[in-house]
């Protein structure tokens, strides 16, 4: 950069906001670790987004459920704005006046004794793994460095090297080894496989109650109840990753409430901030997060006052607007309509609340492109699955319109 030019002058010189130019810049200067649909979003409100050419689209992904409350929710914006010019970051070297209030809200809302706030989802997963291992050594008396965690095949828990190391998805792992040892796989829905995989060194069983990235895979009824009992009998922590399934998405506040169980640990993220800011947290009984002592674990941004103010507002919206019940009602309606669509392209339709999947006999990408051209943004997962996950605040009329578009594309 010539010394005489300021950064703002350089930025100012970029081409005007034309979609094709912006896409070309992104492709030239950014790493290609995503394959986005070519819609360049400039603003959003509620369930709708607008591209740089002023076209509007209904968002049927909701940033992987991070905007359950809808884009730019005014109540969260107000909390964000209020806090952002008071104080944003203190680090945990000092206390701040927002963290205690978030911790209390999380306790009152969920019943868990304690919480540990982090930023991204995968950091909270890593935090839960560390807590479970430390619990294994200090409480369960597992011999040093022998702790094992059981996970499901087809899991998705994020992208750090430890976490992709226990993925069963070849692409997530390939080229990134060597990996952290101490993880074993069992298939979802097979309680006997879990029983057989447990050893005296097992400290935890970590799973998504519904597997989102794998294509909204729902375990058979009773499975979670059975694994909860197996974990209890064997003194194994049950850790549920509710980063995507939690906070109203499946029609309950937590997906595990469909089976009336209580896990030892639950991991949340995504909609915990309503899309304003990365906020995640681990919630647990005192015996688990209680294993951490000063210096054992930390994060510069975790628990910062801006994050906490935003998270409190985001949680309040989910409760005040009864978004879990809304998800249940609109989800039932959507599933019933999807099941009536007669199309040779459909292999299966499934869902829980406003979290639905259409599994196709054919690649999903061209259908997602066709839906985009009709103003509906959906993203394929695993080549042949279209995931439907609109913001939970979606109007019923907008949902109906979206289902009309889906039906039209599937029966064209
Ligand atoms: C998105 C997701 C994560 C990872 O969250 P990041 O914020 O992307 O790190 C972990 N687990 C589940 C179930 C998720 O859906």
In terms of topology, how is this protein built?
Layout: H1 7-12, H2 19-29, E1 41-45, E2 48-51, E3 56-59, H3 62-65, H4 74-84, H5 99-110, E4 114-118, H6 121-138, E5 148-152, H7 161-165, H8 170-173, E6 183-186, H9 191-197, E7 202-207, H10 223-233, E8 237-241, E9 265-268, E10 280-284, H11 286-289, H12 305-320, H13 323-340, E11 346-351, E12 356-360, H14 365-373, E13 376-377, E14 379-381, E15 385-388, H15 396-411
Parallel strand pairs: 3-13, 5-6, 5-7, 7-8, 8-9
Antiparallel strand pairs: 1-2, 2-3, 4-10, 9-10, 11-12, 12-15, 14-15
Bound molecules: pyridoxal-5'-phosphate (PLP).
The site of pyridoxal-5'-phosphate has 14 residues, from helix 6.
Description of the molecule:
With 412 residues, the chain is an alpha/beta fold. The protein folds into 2 domains: 3-69 and 323-411, Aspartate Aminotransferase, domain 1, CATH 3.90.1150.10; 74-320, Type I PLP-dependent aspartate aminotransferase-like (Major domain) (Aspartate Aminotransferase, domain 2), CATH 3.40.640.10. It is 37% helix and 16% strand. The chain has helices spanning 7-12, 19-29, 62-65, 74-84, 99-110, 121-138, 161-165, 170-173, 191-197, 223-233, 286-289, 305-320, 323-340, 365-373, 396-411; strands spanning 41-45, 48-51, 56-59, 114-118, 148-152, 183-186, 202-207, 237-241, 265-268, 280-284, 346-351, 356-360, 376-377, 379-381, 385-388. It has a 7-stranded mixed beta sheet with strand order 4-10-9-8-7-5-6, with helices on both faces. A 4-stranded mixed beta sheet has the order 1-2-3-13. Helix 13 (323-340) runs parallel beside helix 15 (396-411). It is globular and about 60 Å long. The termini are far apart. The model is unreliable at 7-15 (pLDDT under 50). Pyridoxal-5'-phosphate is lined by residues 64, 120-122, 125, 156-158, 208, 212, 241, 243-244, 269. Residues 64, 120-122, 125, 156-158, 208, 212, 241, 243-244, 269 line the site of pyridoxal-5'-phosphate.
């Amino acid at each position: 950069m010539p010394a005489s030019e300021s950064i703002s002058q350089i930025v100012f010189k970029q081409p005007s906001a034309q979609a094709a130019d912006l896409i070309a810049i992104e492709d030239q200067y950014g790493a290609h670790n995503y394959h986005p649909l070519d819609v360049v979003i400039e603003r959003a409100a509620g369930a709708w987004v607008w591209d740089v050419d002023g076209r509007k689209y209904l968002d049927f992904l909701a940033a992987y459920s991070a905007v359950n409350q809808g884009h730019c929710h005014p109540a969260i914006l107000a909390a964000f704005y209020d806090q952002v010019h008071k104080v944003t970051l203190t680090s945990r070297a000092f206390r701040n006046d927002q963290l205690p209030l978030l911790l209390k809200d999380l306790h009152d809302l969920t019943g868990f004794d304690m919480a540990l706030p982090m930023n991204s989802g995968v950091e909270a997963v890593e935090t839960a793994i560390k807590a479970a291992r430390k619990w294994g050594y200090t409480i369960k008396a597992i011999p040093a460095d022998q702790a094992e965690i059981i996970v499901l095949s087809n899991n998705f828990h994020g992208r750090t090297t430890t976490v992709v190391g226990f993925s069963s998805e070849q692409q997530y792992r390939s080229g990134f080894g060597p990996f952290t040892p101490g993880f074993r796989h069992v298939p979802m829905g097979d309680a006997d496989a879990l029983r057989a995989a447990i050893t005296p060194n097992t400290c935890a069983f970590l799973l998504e109650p519904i597997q989102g990235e794998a294509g909204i895979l729902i375990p058979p009824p009773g499975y979670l109840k059975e694994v909860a009992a197996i974990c209890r009998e064997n003194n194994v922590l049950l850790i549920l990753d509710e980063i995507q399934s939690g906070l109203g998405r499946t029609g309950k506040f937590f997906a595990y409430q469909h089976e009336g169980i209580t896990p030892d640990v639950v991991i949340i993220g995504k909609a915990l901030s309503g899309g304003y800011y990365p906020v995640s947290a681990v919630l647990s009984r005192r015996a688990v997060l209680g294993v951490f002592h000063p210096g054992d674990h930390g994060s510069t941004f975790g628990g910062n006052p801006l994050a906490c103010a935003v998270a409190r507002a985001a949680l309040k919206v989910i409760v005040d607007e009864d978004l879990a019940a809304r998800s249940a009602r609109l989800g039932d309606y959507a599933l019933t309509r999807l099941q009536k669509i007669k199309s040779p392209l459909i292999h299966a339709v499934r869902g829980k609340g406003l979290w639905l999947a259409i599994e196709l006999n054919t690649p999903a990408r061209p259908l997602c492109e066709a839906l985009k051209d009709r103003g509906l943004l959906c993203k394929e997962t695993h080549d042949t699955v279209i995931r439907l996950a609109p913001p939970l605040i979606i109007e019923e009329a907008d949902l109906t319109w979206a289902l009309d578009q889906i039906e039209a594309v599937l029966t064209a």
